[in-house]
Design a protein that fits this description.
- This is Sarcosine oxidase subunit gamma.
- It holds the Pfam family SoxG.
- The protein has helices at residues 37-47, 82-92, 117-122, 166-176, and strands spanning 12-14, 18-21, 26-31, 57-59, 64-69, 72-77, 99-102, 107-113, 137-142, 145-153, 156-162.
- By secondary structure, the protein is of the alpha+beta class.
- It has two domains: 12-23 and 106-176, Probable tRNA modification gtpase trme, domain 1 (Gyrase A, domain 2, 2-Layer Sandwich); 26-104, Alpha-Beta Plaits (2-Layer Sandwich).
């Protein structure tokens, strides 16, 4: 078996915001009844976080949980722990109508760091990034690709997309963060 590698192996760009691939990140799709006690317990056991409300992301001691749709969550964990989390959650939800899938190797994750991180993302998405605050998650698109993003803090945006379009996403983010391209209000 080959060793896991991230899509762009840690690619980075320093512009008026820093754009960097986050490396290997554990990502698990959990689909089911989000109001179920069993789902809530499985999510808490996996991440230490509570199920977030619509458009939110919550932090736990072992990971994060993002609301993706009325019946879908994204669990974010250490990459190496993702298979164990899937196994444990699948066991815990055996009597529930639920699906737990490790999508880690099908995704790419980027961080945009700097005071203008919202601006860099805003150049690429129809979403109103001025309304984004830490703890909010937005499923949208950047240019022509589906993506989701959230703020870790006021100066760090995290963007998730399919691994197959990682280079395209990175190039878009680099172009949006080029020095001289700042938007002045």
């Amino acid at each position: 078996m080959s060793d896991a590698v991230s899509a762009l192996q840690g690619a980075s760009f320093d512009g008026y915001c820093k754009v960097e691939e986050a490396g290997l990140v554990g990502m698990i799709t959990l689909r089911g009844d989000l109001s179920s006690t069993g789902v809530a317990k499985a999510v808490k056991a996996a991440t230490g976080a509570a199920i977030p409300g619509q458009g939110k992301i919550t932090d736990g001691v072992k990971g994060r949980v993002g609301w993706m749709s009325p019946d879908e969550l994204l669990l974010i964990t250490d990459h190496i722990e993702a298979p164990k989390v899937v196994e444990a959650a699948t066991r815990a939800l055996a009597k529930e109508h639920a699906l737990v899938v490790n999508v880690s190797d099908a995704r790419a994750v980027f961080r945009v760091k700097g005071t203008a991180c919202r601006e860099v993302i805003a150049k690429l998405t129809p979403a109103d990034t001025s309304l984004m605050q830490p703890g909010m998650l937005r499923r949208t698109r950047i240019a022509q690709i589906p993506a989701a993003f959230y703020l870790e803090d006021d100066e760090t945006a995290v963007l998730v997309c399919f691994r197959s379009v990682a280079q395209y996403a990175f190039d878009l983010l680099k172009d949006a963060a080029k020095p001289g391209g700042e938007v002045f209000s």
